[in-house]
Specification:
Blueprint: H1 3-29, H2 36-47, H3 53-72, H4 78-102, H5 110-134, H6 140-151, H7 157-180, H8 188-207, H9 209-215
Helix pairs in contact: 1-4, 1-5, 2-3, 2-7, 3-4, 3-6, 5-8, 6-7
Length: about 240
């Protein structure tokens, strides 16, 4: 990564992380479940209400970073994992901040709840778009799926990511059902976000090329600097 572009990329990544966090909070407030990436922390927060969704998000994210280290071993990028540790804390705090900003917001009518989930999905997808455009590092959920794809060399990232998300949803539902008799953070909103976010993010990449050119630095030849997956290939379900 070119050093004169790092600050810009970090800023774009941070904005994307904030948008994702606010969108997760918005979807959660609809009371129709949470996105896959937050399903396990949300189920745990229902069981242990003394800790916030952000607190459990931090712990869960740190666990995913540790699992990446175990999976990759000597192949692990220690700097990237270190960044993910920092991001784990920021991500958790951002989620709690988003929920605090939304306050007592809680739609009562079912169609309003569905509308909130859909709006949250568009916001979540935009945050994913910004993070991939930034091409700075990964949030732990993405990093874990990528580590799995490295170990399971015959399966592409997208396939592994979908399997990872489905596993998270199942675990969250089991935790909730065993502990409190409900599916916890898994409801129709979880399924909607799992199905829509990746698709919407892909649409952003195809429709917002002008914005991408503005956000992503240019090299001396006038071409967009592409490092990693800035074409949206890693846009997964959040």
């Amino acid at each position: 990564m070119k050093h004169d572009h790092i600050v810009r990329r970090i800023a774009i990544f941070a904005v994307g992380l904030m948008v994702i966090s606010l969108s997760i909070g918005f979807i959660t407030k609809a009371s129709l479940g949470t996105p896959p990436i937050s399903s396990i922390p949300y189920s745990l927060s229902l069981i242990f209400p003394s800790l916030t969704l952000g607190n459990f998000t931090i712990m869960y994210s740190l666990l995913l970073v540790f699992l990446q280290l175990v999976l990759l071993g000597k192949e692990a990028d220690k700097i990237n994992l270190g960044l993910q540790v920092i991001i784990s804390f920021i991500f958790g705090y951002f989620i709690d901040f988003g929920l605090m900003v939304l306050g007592d917001f809680s739609p009562d009518i079912y169609w309003e709840r569905i509308a909130c989930v859909l709006i949250g999905c568009f916001g979540l997808a935009f945050g994913v778009y910004l993070q991939i455009v930034a091409d700075f590092t990964m949030v732990p959920g993405d990093g874990f799926a990528y580590a799995l794809s490295v170990k399971i060399k015959r399966k592409p990232y997208r396939v592994v990511r979908v399997c990872s998300d489905v596993t998270m949803i199942v675990i969250a539902a089991v935790i909730g059902f065993v502990a409190i008799g409900t599916t916890g953070g898994v409801r129709e909103g979880t399924v909607i976000s799992a199905l829509l976010v990746g698709t919407i993010a892909g649409i952003y990449f195809s429709r917002l090329k002008a914005l991408t050119r503005i956000l992503v630095p240019f090299d001396q030849d006038g071409d967009v600097v592409k490092e990693g997956s800035s074409d949206g290939a890693t846009a997964g379900n959040r």
